[in-house]
Amino acid sequence: MKRPARPLLALAAALAVAVPTILFGSSAAYADPISQTSGFYVNPQSSPASWVAANPGDGRASAIRTEIAQKPMASWFGNWSGDIAAAVGNYVAAADAVDKLPLLVAYNLPGRDACGGHSGGGAGSVAAYDAWIAAFASAIGNRPAVVVLEPDSLGDFNCMTQAQINDRVGMLARAANQFRSKAPNTWAYLDAGNPGWVDARTMAQRLNMAGVANAHGFALNVSNYFTTGENTNYGNAVASTLRNDFGYTKPYVIDTSRNRNGSNGQWCNPAGRRIGTPTQIGGGAEMLLWLKTPGESDGNCGVGAGSTAGQFLPEVAYKLVFGY
Question: How many domains does the chain have?
C-alpha cells in the first residue's frame, strides 16, 4: 500500500500541553483509548518482524529488528484480509490481551487509489463496502483502538466523476458513523492527504462533506514523506478552516514512518528517505504514528522497481534506517 503526494493521554494533561489549543473541540463524544491502555501495540507478525524471524542470519536483520520491527505501527486491512470481522477481531483481541492500543488502517473503498493506480482494488460496490466497514467497526466493539479510514480517498478527485465523488464521500460519512455507534472506544480519523496535494481549504471542505464531524479527527501524510513541521502547519490550517467555515474543529495525527528527510517531490519509493519519529503521543499533533510500514513497497516504481504495493523489501527497509 502507498500514499501519495501527487503533483498539483499516557495522560490527558500531557496531551493537552503537546497539542495546540486550536486542535481541540468536537471530540468529547469519544472515550479516550489512550488512557485505557498502557502504550501502543507492537505486532509480532508484522511484515518486518516476519522477515527478521525468517532471516536471522542476514546482516540487515539486527537493524531492521531494533529500528523497525520492534516499533509500534499500523496494520492495514482490505480485500486481502478475508473475513474482516475475524481479521480485525483477532488483531484487536491480541492487543487487548496485553493492554496495548492497536493501530489499524481501513483500505477497501471501491475504486481505491483510482487516480494513482499502484494500489487499486477495493470492495466491489458501495453496498459491499458499507457492509465491510460495518463489520470492521463491530469487530472492534468496546475495545480501545485507533483507526485511520481510507488513505487516498480525499486527496485526488481529478480522475473521478461527480457521481463517483458523491458515492465516495457518502461511504466515508457512513463509515465514520459506524465507528461512532459501534466502536465507542475507538478514535477514527479520516485520511486528509498531505501538504503537497490540495490546499488546506479544499481539504477541509472535502473532510466536512465526508463526515469528519462524526469522526474523532483526520490523518495526514499517510505513506508519504513530508516533514512533521510541514504537516503541522497544514493540519493547523485545515483545523482552523473547519472551525471558521463549519463551526467545529478536529485534532489530527501525522504518519512519521518515513518522513525524517522530508519529501523530494516523489511519492512512489523515492531514494534517500529515512524513518521518522516513532509512534508517540503529541509531538505537534495529537499523535505521531507509523501508519505505513517502513520497508513495504509503494508499488512497482523507484527503488521498489519490480515489486508490488505492500510487498516488504528488506533492502529498502535497511536503507530507511540509515538514509542511503
Answer: 1
The residue written with cell numbers 458499507 in the block is 130
Q: Which residues constitute the domain of residue 248?
A: 12-322
- Beta carbons of 154 and 207 less than 8 angstroms apart: yes
**pLDDT in the model for residue 159:** 86
Question: What mean pLDDT value characterizes the chain?
Answer: 90
CB 283 within 8 A of CB 255: no
Question: Which residues have a catalytic role annotated?
Answer: 152
Report how far residue 263's alpha carbon sits from residue 251's, in angstroms, rounded to the nearest whole number. 23
Percent of the chain exceeding pLDDT 90 equals 85
Q: Could you tell me if residue 255 is inside a domain?
A: yes
Q: Kind and range of the H or E element at 108?
A: none
pLDDT of res. 166: 95
Give the CA distances from residue 130 to residues 45, 115, 121, 164, 206, in Å, rounded to whole numbers and listed in that order.
Answer: 28, 22, 16, 15, 19
Alpha helix locations (H) across the chain? Answer: 12-18, 47-54, 61-64, 84-97, 126-140, 162-182, 200-209, 228-241, 314-322
- pTM score: 0.90
- Could you tell me how far CA 107 lies from the centroid of its own chain? 9
Tell me how far apart the alpha carbons of residues 313 and 55 are, in angstroms, rounded to a whole number: 13
pLDDT over 50 (residue 117) = yes
**Residue corresponding to grid cell 527503488:** 303
Examine residue 2 and state whether it is found in any structural domain, yes or no.
no
CB of 212 within 8 A of CB of 176? yes
Question: Exposed, middle or buried by CB within 10 Å (0-12, 13-18, 19+), for 315?
Answer: exposed
Which residues, in sequence order, are bridge partners of residue 253? Answer: 219, 287
Evaluate whether residue 1 is within a structural domain: no
* Domain assignment of residue 316, yes or no: yes
User: Cell 489549543 maps to which residue?
Assistant: 21
Average pLDDT over residues 99-121: 83
Convert the pLDDT of each residue in 146-192 to its tens digit: 999 999 999 989 889 999 999 999 999 999 999 999 999 999 999 99
Backbone angles phi, psi at 56, to 5 degrees: -65, -25
Q: State the CATH number of the domain containing residue 315.
A: 3.20.20.40
